[in-house]
Design goal:
Elements: H1 3-13, H2 21-41, H3 45-57, E1 63-65, E2 70-72, H4 74-86, E3 93-94, H5 102-116, H6 120-141, H7 144-147, H8 152-169, H9 173-186, H10 192-196, H11 205-221, H12 240-243, E4 267-268, H13 279-292, E5 299-306, H14 308-314, H15 324-328, H16 331-341, H17 351-354, H18 357-363, E6 366-370, H19 372-377, E7 384-390, E8 395-400, H20 413-422, H21 429-440, H22 448-454
Parallel strand pairs: 5-6
Antiparallel strand pairs: 1-2, 3-4, 5-7, 7-8
């Protein structure tokens, strides 16, 4: 099979000049979207607490804690920057893998490129290689890896982080293979139980994966070896896909089509700060509000009809005293926040907003129902239908089949620039314009440190 070796070969040989133009442009959009998520996440108290703790560790000033105003050690910077990539739950994702590669790959790519004083071309190479190494094992096991109790952003993301780091370190094919092999040994358990319970430790999974990925590649650079069959495993039955999935993985997805189709092209972006399974309902709700202009007091009841995975993952309400993690994974909360605020961004995830009696009251009028027809269309479509019954007898209905940000209804550069502005937290427009310009001409950037310094 040699799937791991084939993936390592591809990642080590990948070069900017060989990349199709659309892949380069998509990588730039991933960077731009990442910066939005950093700014949005820094609005959350839990993120501020993580940043404060990491800053207290001090250490060498090797890389920037982006948006935080200080430098720290390479792995600590990656940990912070992975946390801010993840926490707001507006990060990019792979529908076919249930993972969010940005949370592990970009923190490594920017921090290490800054430390090594590398330019934008090297950064793009690392991003593309890292997304391949993160997305392919996730796709090979989807959805069984998650249903077996793991979060692929943390587990599979470590392979992506290691590949990105190895690429920037200039490791050869054998070094890349060892980096990926080492990643399989040091990656976090990344328990889905933490997310489903609404515990705020969930937000560090990207940071932990990024930090572990740097360690994996760094050890490989010093000759430490890892299993060359780490992804597919051997007759010993100890490979990553063998021990973290209740169902047999589709191993062909680990290496089929390398260089012909890039997984980064399948990445979606999120306009809203909540689990992707809520986005169809959020989009439908906001459309109904814009078109009909009703208020919360006019609502009798709301029914959200959706597919089985969404009902399971986000069909519940927010428990008393629940965290913003619970809110991000609650369709009733998402719909209520959209109705009351006309948006779903950082401001809807503050402790004060989640505890607001007006929001709590409205969530109790939202029911989530499995729709067999919508379930049959999954995963080709992630459809949700919102039915709002008003007290005056009107019935307002809208169904979203493909939420905005999907490659079939993409968020383009202008959309992501608007998202950056929404999530910017009062940062000056001229600074944001400079960031956008630098990212959209990333291949011309001589030192990634210039970008890190202005985020």
């Amino acid at each position: 099979m040699d799937h791991t070796r084939k993936l390592a070969h591809f990642c080590s040989k990948l070069s900017f000049d060989s990349l199709p133009g659309e892949v380069v442009e998509k990588a730039k959009l991933c960077v731009l979207d990442y910066i939005s998520n950093i700014y949005g996440s820094l609005e959350l108290d839990a993120v501020k607490a993580v940043v404060e703790y990491v800053k207290s560790l001090d250490g060498p000033k090797a890389a920037t804690a982006l948006g935080c105003g200080f430098k720290t050690g390479l792995q600590n910077a990656a940990f912070v920057n992975g946390t801010t990539a993840e926490a707001i739950e507006a990060q990019d994702g792979l529908r076919f893998g249930g993972n969010h590669p940005v949370s592990a790959v970009l923190p490594v790519a920017i921090a290490l490129a800054e430390k090594l004083k590398l330019g934008g071309r090297a950064l793009i190479e690392a991003v593309v290689a890292g997304y391949e190494a993160a997305d392919r094992p996730a796709a090979a096991m989807h959805p069984w890896h998650t249903l077996s109790g793991f979060l692929p952003t943390g587990t599979c993301g470590t392979f992506g982080a290691a590949a990105a780091a190895a690429k920037l370190m200039g490791l050869n094919e054998e070094g890349m293979l060892n980096a990926i092999g080492n990643a399989g040994y040091v990656l976090p358990l990344s328990m889905a139980e933490q997310l489903m319970g609404g515990y705020t430790i969930k937000i560090v999974q990207g940071g932990q994966a990024a930090s572990a990925g740097i360690m994996a590649a760094g050890l490989a650079s010093k000759g430490i070896t890892g299993c060359p069959e780490v992804l597919e495993g051997s007759a010993l039955k100890g490979g990553f896909t063998q021990i973290t999935s209740r169902a047999d993985p589709n191993l062909d997805k680990l290496s089929d089509g390398l260089g012909e189709h890039y997984s980064i092209m399948d990445i979606y972006f999120k306009p809203y700060s909540a689990c992707r399974h809520t986005h169809g309902a959020a989009q439908a709700t906001l459309k109904l509000i814009r078109e009909h202009g009703f208020g919360a007091g006019e609502i009798e009841s709301i029914a959200v009809h959706t597919y089985g995975v969404a009902e399971l993952a986000v069909g519940k309400g927010v428990p008393d005293g629940g965290s913003f993690v619970s809110a991000q994974f609650s369709l009733p909360y998402v719909v209520a926040a959209c109705i009351l605020d006309g948006d779903l961004g950082p401001g809807q995830l503050t402790e004060r907003r989640i505890a607001d009696s007006a929001v709590i009251d409205l969530t109790k009028r939202v029911s989530v129902k499995l729709d067999e027809e919508l379930n049959k269309a999954y995963p080709e479509k992630t459809s949700s239908r919102v039915e709002i019954s008003l007290k005056d007898g009107r019935e307002l209905v809208w169904q979203t089949d493909i939420p905005k940000g999907d490659p079939r209804d993409p968020m383009e550069a202008d959309d992501l620039a608007e998202k950056l502005s929404r999530f910017a937290g009062g940062r000056k427009p001229e600074r944001l314009e400079k960031i956008i310009g630098m990212v959209m001409e990333l291949e011309k950037l001589r030192d990634v440190g210039e970008l890190a310094s202005i985020i």
